[in-house]
Amino acid sequence: MKQTINLNAYNERYVEFKIGDKNIRCPELTYAGMKKINEYENNTNATREDESEIILWLLNRNTSGTEFVQKDIDELPAGAVTRIYRECVMLSRKALDDPN
What we know:
With 100 residues, the protein is of the alpha+beta class. The protein has one domain. It is built from four helices and two strands. It has helices spanning 31-41, 48-59, 70-74, 78-91, and strands at 14-19, 22-27. The chain has a two-stranded antiparallel ribbon. Strand 1 and strand 2 form a beta hairpin. Helix 2 packs across helix 4 (78-91). It starts with 13 loop residues before the first strand and ends in a 9-residue tail after the last helix.
């Protein structure tokens, strides 16, 4: 018996953030993107600057083409920066049928 698994649903997953007056959609990380995150998370010498660069990279992957600069990250509350990171990374780790 042949089974077909539809993987297209993964292409449509994103996290949406409201930053200022803009709605920003960041798509699910690619496999290469997850490798980049894993390298960052496993780097025992990572600095705040490294963290800031990762957050900037995550935000600049948005689907609207909005370009963020370091100053934009620096002006956000620390909790918002942490939430951006967590939501973008955890999206790839959540099951598609998770009701939460």
